[in-house]
Recover the amino acids of this structure.
């Protein structure tokens, strides 16, 4: 399970010991000694033999160790907040060493265990068919310096009663089957919650999917029912538009009513929400619900929505909110950190395929939500405050895990999870470089009177205030568009120009990689939209979406200038001369580079504050 299950305050010491028994559900033992004897009987070991005596003694020590470990766990959870950093360093290292001691026990067990195994499977053909026994040689992998790629469909389980618990979601040690859970994917899920939710991470859970679209489909399938209503921000990824429009809205599927809202502020949203509420009174009266789907920063202009105010309004009206914050990554924007629950989206989505992994080596995605909406052990319920400000009972069957994850199949395998973890280690470095490049490129394009720049990095852009309000260090997302509608190039001139942007600007349809990529949304990512809808979304034939990479931005600019000279100047001789000059570009780069780094240093804690944490 992705969450570290909290130590149970109610369990008695004996109950804690019993959870380690192969007869944890049916035991008749009353103390540790009896538990050990019962364990021997369960495996038909004669207690009067030397083997029986040493096994009983070891089992007793382990039952006692489990009690001690739970006491230590409870004490740590209670004390951690108050502990000085020095004590936390000491606690951490003492526990790390305990891990090695526990593993050493397992490792020492391997020799006698392997000998017994070899004596039981002497036949060559059985040995070949079975391969190495799972536990042997895996113990030291715990100490692999990167998460282990668990390339397996299934897992060895301990005994009947433990696997029964695992099927109920009550035994986190047993993963059961890799379509549902595997340790590499769980490692990533725990990590993304830490990155996204910071000090609130104990309240949140993540489920990984095989792609960003699978994550979006997963959460929409979880929430949307027949004839529900969804209000969606206009500028969303084309795949999201298609999924809503072509699948969820289709009358022979769920006949969901999809309504769009333009603009980025809460007033634009309220206006549409109130209209939709009136328009669908009859559906709502039969119990159908309104959901809200946001993408911020959005595709393709990188504009930021007033997510907190929109969430607050939606929640006051009992609507749940999903927010796709892929383009920002948790480096630029963490919507779950708002103090008020009502101002946080209920679910955050990332396509890991983009900047979190950063190199485009894999497709993957995630949904992050509050624990009680993501996973509750089978047949259990949890009472907690919901985002509508009311105390509510959350049932296990209504969590994303049981309702969708457990019964469908698009979940992340270990190789891909590993790629995401590996790539994410350089997220901050890459994003720093990208935001610098974004500001420089936007200002460079803006120096040309015939180029429209849709980028909130520009101080006079209508979305600049929202960027300052929401984005870390007031920095822009590395995604924006330009268009040349002022010049009215014909289609052939424009496409000749666009086709000459390679190899400096990659012709690729994704975003969020280390290389800068360009596409024409009207002809690719948003081609499913009608001309009317494209215009409403501010997308024209000459709109170029730029997903900014980590290159030296001056090389991008030099190539762009040479390409306008090549294609446009023969038609409009002064076109290229209208860009800012080379010296100005170099100075701009230096200014922005230093400014962003200065902001970073000032936004991060200094040594005195770090020592105190
Ligand atoms: C903002 C956004 N969300 C979701 C997706 C879908 O992610 P994936 O391609 O991993 O399925 C994309 C893909 O481009 C995207 O740009």
């Amino acid at each position: 399970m992705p969450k570290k299950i909290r130590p149970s305050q109610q369990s008695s010491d004996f109950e804690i010991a019993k959870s380690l028994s192969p007869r944890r559900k049916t035991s008749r033992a009353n103390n540790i000694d009896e538990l050990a004897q019962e364990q021997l009987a369960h495996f038909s070991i004669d207690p009067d033999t030397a083997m029986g005596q040493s096994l009983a003694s070891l089992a007793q020590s382990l039952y006692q160790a489990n009690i001690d470990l739970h006491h230590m766990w409870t004490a740590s959870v209670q004390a951690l907040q108050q502990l000085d950093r020095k004590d936390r360093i000491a606690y951490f290292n003492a526990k790390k060493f305990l891990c090695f001691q526990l593993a050493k026990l397992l490792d020492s067990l391997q020799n006698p265990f392997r000998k017994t195994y070899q004596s039981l499977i002497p036949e060559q053909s059985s040995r070949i068919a079975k391969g190495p026994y799972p536990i042997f040689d895996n113990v030291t992998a715990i100490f692999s310096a990167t998460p282990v790629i668990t390339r397996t469909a299934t897992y060895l389980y301990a005994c009947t009663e433990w696997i029964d618990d695992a099927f109920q979601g009550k035994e986190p040690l047993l993963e059961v089957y890799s379509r549902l859970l595997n340790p590499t994917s769980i490692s990533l899920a725990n990590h993304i919650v830490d990155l996204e939710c910071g000090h609130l991470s104990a309240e949140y859970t993540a489920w990984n999917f095989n792609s960003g679209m699978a994550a979006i489909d997963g959460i929409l399938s979880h929430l949307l029912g027949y004839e529900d209503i969804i209000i969606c921000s206009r500028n969303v990824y084309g795949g999201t538009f298609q999924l809503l429009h072509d699948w969820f809205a289709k009358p022979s599927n769920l006949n969901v009513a999809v309504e769009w809202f333009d603009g980025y502020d809460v007033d634009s949203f309220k206006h549409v929400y109130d209209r939709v509420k009136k328009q669908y009174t009859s559906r709502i009266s039969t119990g159908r619900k309104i959901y809200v789907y946001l993408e911020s920063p959005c595709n393709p202009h990188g504009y930021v929505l007033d997510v907190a105010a929109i969430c607050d309004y939606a929640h006051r009206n009992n609507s749940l909110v999903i927010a796709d914050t892929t383009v920002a990554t948790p480096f630029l924007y963490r919507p779950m950190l708002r103090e008020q629950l009502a101002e946080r989206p209920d679910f955050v989505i990332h396509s890991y395929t983009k900047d979190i992994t950063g190199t485009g080596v894999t497709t993957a995605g995630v949904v992050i939500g509050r624990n009680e909406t993501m996973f509750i052990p089978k047949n259990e319920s949890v009472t907690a405050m919901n985002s509508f400000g009311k105390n509510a009972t959350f049932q296990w069957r209504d969590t994303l895990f049981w309702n969708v994850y457990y019964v469908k199949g698009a979940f992340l395998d270990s190789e891909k999870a590993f790629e995401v973890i590996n790539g994410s280690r350089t997220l901050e470095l890459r994003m720093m470089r990208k935001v610098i490049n974004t500001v420089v490129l936007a200002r460079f394009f803006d120096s040309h009177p015939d180029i429209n720049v849709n980028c909130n990095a520009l101080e006079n852009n209508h979305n600049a205030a929202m960027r300052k309000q929401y984005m870390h260090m007031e920095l822009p997302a590395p995604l924006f568009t330009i268009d040349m509608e002022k010049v009215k190039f014909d289609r052939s001139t424009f496409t000749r120009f666009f086709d000459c942007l390679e190899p400096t600007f990659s012709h690729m349809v994704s975003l969020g990689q280390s290389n800068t990529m360009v596409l024409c949304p009207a002809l690719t990512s948003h081609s499913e939209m009608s001309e009317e809808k494209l215009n409403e979304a501010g997308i024209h034939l000459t709109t170029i979406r730029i997903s900014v990479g980590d290159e030296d931005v001056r090389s991008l600019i030099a190539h762009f200038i040479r390409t306008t000279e090549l294609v446009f100047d023969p038609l409009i001789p002064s076109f290229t001369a209208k860009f800012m000059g080379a010296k100005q570009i170099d100075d701009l780069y230096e200014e922005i580079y230093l400014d962003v780094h200065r902001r970073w240093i000032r936004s991060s804690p200094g040594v005195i504050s770090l020592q105190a944490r």
